[in-house]
Amino acid sequence: MTRFVVIFLLVLVCLFTLEMQTGVQREVIEPFTAVLASISAAIIQPFDDSVLSYGKVLQFTPGGFAVSIEAGCNGVEASIVLIAAILAYPASWRARGAAIAVGLLAVQLMNILRIISLFYLGNWNLDVFTWVHLYLWPALIMLDVLVVFIVFLHYLSRQPGASRHAAA
Amino acid sequence: MPLPERHHLLQFVLFVFVLLIPCFALWSFLSAALVTPVIGLANLILSHWFPDIVNVVYQQGADAMLMTRLDEIDGQLVPTDVTDAGLGFKANTRIVSYSIPFYAALHFATEKKDYLANFFWGLLAIYPFILLGLISICMKDLMVGFGTIFLDQAGVLVPGPGLIGISYQLSVLIVPTLLPVAVWAWQSRDTPLLRSLLAAASP
């Protein structure tokens, strides 16, 4: 347990500090966030053609309500927590790689759902938007991370060889 | 009758979803009262740590108002002893205290024997981090608002801007959601949900 906690915190702080660097924000995080906005718009547009995206902004046209996807709203922090937990847990690198790939997909799917729901909530009521955005959705995203990690543990428990061949 | 092992996770997720809304709704009404001790402690710590800058931290609903001993006159920051004349910063304590309803939902969604005592101990573990989060927010505000006047105080140990920035980001973006999960996982390690998984998956 001590080993898990130490590795988890170490990886978490390293990745988080890396994410906060200006160069990483400019070259990686912001383009990634813009892709999230584009994907969200692409999902919405078949059902609602009054929506467009530019950069990291999602907006109703013409000149309607808009949301800008900022740091903390792109699922990167939740992904970092998930990566740190999976890397800290004893398992084969193959199992870890698969868990990280599936986990990141799960987190980002949930995050796109969050962006779209917040976009419509904000257009309807800003107070509700603020409450759900600041408090409820972060908890739901972390719950998603927790469920992915528990499923990872469940997978490991069914594959006894995976933990015995740990290469941490 | 105990649930089959594979159903524990489904039951847990379902119960968390059911409990999240009422827990967050209850916290919305109680959040001001819940952070009163935190704001009182933040006032003690910050006014003693930075006596030349921080005048008082007081509660305004669920917000903390940090009043400083500096006022702005003609674009210049000047010292003032008048409480209401100092520049103030408002901090939304809910962005660090929503760890409480999240922890409550996780805790009460898990099948265990002693709910209330464990919940009390869990809250005791979470409260210091809410305090740290509020202090991080206040220090970030002081750093952004006053710059070198805050960072270069004579005879006062002030963390570097990088450390203040990272601790603020950690306190706001990661700790409020990660800490409840960590406390819940530690307290639930002997529950049917986690016991079999941890035992089977451990090397």
Give the SSE layout:
The complex is a heterodimer of chains A (168) and B (203).
Chain A lengths: L1 H19 L1 H23 L6 E4 L2 E4 L5 E3 L7 H13 L4 H32 L1 H33 L1 H5 L4
Antiparallel strand pairs in A: 1-2, 2-3
Helix pairs in contact in A: 1-3, 2-4, 3-4, 3-5, 4-5
Chain B lengths: L4 H45 L4 E7 L2 E6 L1 E4 L2 E4 L8 E5 L1 H4 L1 H10 L6 H32 L1 H4 L9 H27 L4 H10 L2
Antiparallel strand pairs in B: 1-2, 2-5, 3-4
Helix pairs in contact in B: 1-3, 1-4, 3-4, 3-6, 4-6
Alpha-carbon Rg of chain B, integer: 21 Å
SSE string of chain A, helices as H and strands as E: HHEEEHHHH
Topology, number of strands of chain B: 5
Mean pLDDT of chain B: 88
How many beta strands in the DSSP annotation of chain A? 3
Span of the ends, CA to CA of chain B = 30 Å
Taking all Cα atoms into account, the compactness measure Rg of chain A is 18 Å
Structural category of chain A is: mainly alpha
Q: Helical element count of chain A?
A: 6
The biggest sheet of chain B, with number of strands, parallel, antiparallel or mixed sense and barrel status, is: 3 strands, antiparallel
Q: Which pair of protein chains has the largest interface, and what are the residue counts?
A: A-B, 38 and 35 residues
- DSSP summary: helix tally of chain B: 7
Helix proportion of chain B: 55-70%
Any idea what the shape of chain A is?
Answer: elongated
Task: Specify the structural class of chain B.
Answer: alpha+beta
What overall form of chain B do the CA principal axes indicate?
elongated
